[in-house]
From TrEMBL:
Pfam families: LysR_substrate
LysR substrate-binding domain location: 30-229
Swiss-Prot/TrEMBL keywords: DNA-binding, Plasmid, Transcription, Transcription regulation
Molecular function terms, GO-annotated: DNA binding
Ranges in coiled-coil conformation: none
InterPro entries attached to this UniProt entry: LysR-type_TF, LysR_subst-bd
Family of this protein: Belongs to the LysR transcriptional regulatory family.
Protein name: LysR family transcriptional regulator
Keyword DNA-binding listed: yes
Classification via SUPFAM superfamilies: Periplasmic binding protein-like II
Amino acid sequence: MSLPGYRRTAAQLDDAVLGQQAFDPAQAERLFTIAPNGYVEFVLVPALVARLEKVAPGIKLRLTPYGNDLVETGVVSGTTALVLGRIVDPLDNLVVQHLMDEGLACAVRADHPAIGDAMTREQFETMKHVNIVPPGRMRAGLFQALAQHQLKRDVAISVTNFFAVAEMVAVTDYCAILPSLICRRLTHDPRLKILPAPVDLGSFPVEMAWHVRYRHDPAHRWLRALIGEVITDFKGKTAATAMPSPA
């Protein structure tokens, strides 16, 4: 038997064995290492943990950061169960699943002296902005949308995560462009108000990737399905509270 044929046969045997293994999430005790990017960690992971607490209390998560290098996360070697975020140039041994597309909106302080219930292009370009800096090529989508509409943005401060943005916007006259799900959470903050951008800034993909060896593993399949349920729930809530598009 040739080497490629042997590998295919071995993979088929692995799949058959894994497919016969039972996995009971309610009784299982297991640690999964996952690598979410900053957006997923802020928005989706808390909802995932809440579900785990109810349906699989013995399942624990360990988070490792996902920046722009898939190899560093451990997903390429299989030491990490999965990676969540925007998957750029995945290797051949990874399976990639598209989860959803996320839009963008603007956040300013509720009593902003110049901004009412809508924001004009001129106001957007006159204001100073808080910029959230995702690593590497993940910045490309927003920058391309701004360039396409020839929309200028005067960045006063750039930060590396979402956690401090609300506090900065609440005490300044600055504006921040944020993912829609984060904006939806911030609508409960009385210090802030959320507005559509003056132009359509498009969307960015949220994806999940895992090593091919885990494609039929019952425990891994269950975890991926649970993440899919969380995403479906978010999609439903987003559709119910969708913001109007800019005129």
